[in-house]
């Protein structure tokens, strides 16, 4: 029997020449592109960093909606810390709405935060002093000089309206009635207001002045509303104004008030109330006691003669 002639190699799919001694089955055909993956039992999807496999939702017979797919991806990436049990699974319950956590209480405002009682305000003020003590290295004795017990604070927790500048006259009339009565009386001496209103910024102080002047709280006999802040006004100009003016309310920034008291340009003999304007916030969401330099001035005021009058019971603190 004569030997069979060798079979010539075929060029399949542009492959290399396999050589004359390599026999290729003439019935062989290359597999489809995805066959190897199917033989290994893998499915289409995507891999994440921890090798967790997430199936492609389009191949899941329509059992997953967009919300479920997103939940699965978040779970694979470790972002499902707030998901409820069964959330994101096929046939699982729909995603539950999570309650918003309440914001940290700083003091008072009309935007959903808790209105504090005098006891709560005493605690809040201690927290303010603690921050200042850490920032300035104050001793325990120095901080105690600025502490305010709860009986120093006016209880205005029953006021349910938003604590906006427009609602300030209503707030005073309904919840600080003694101050409302005092504002309608004629001051006996110049430079001796019955109320000090501490605002964190000149712009806010100007708005408060505008509202108080137009409110009618002072009646026909009440004194003037003094604007005491640095913007556009020199210290000596304000001292001269106070010396010749009977003032009912002095709306001031803490730093300018501190300067006027140091120069004996402002008297405390007629003072009955001090209002801490804790509602207003600047562009960085900071308040009267969260701006470091403003807080320093407020604490300094309450460590001095002003704080002494408050602790003696002659002056009431109102937090608006």
UniProtKB/TrEMBL annotation:
Bias (Acidic residues): 17-26, 35-60
Region described as Disordered: spans on this chain: 1-65, 77-110
Region forming the signal peptide: none
Domain of life: Eukaryota
Pfam families in the record: CMS1
Assigned GO CC terms: 90S preribosome; nucleus
PANTHER family: PROTEIN CMSS1
Name of this chain's protein: Uncharacterized protein
Organism: Dacryopinax primogenitus (strain DJM 731)
Classification lineage: Eukaryota, Fungi, Dikarya, Basidiomycota, Agaricomycotina
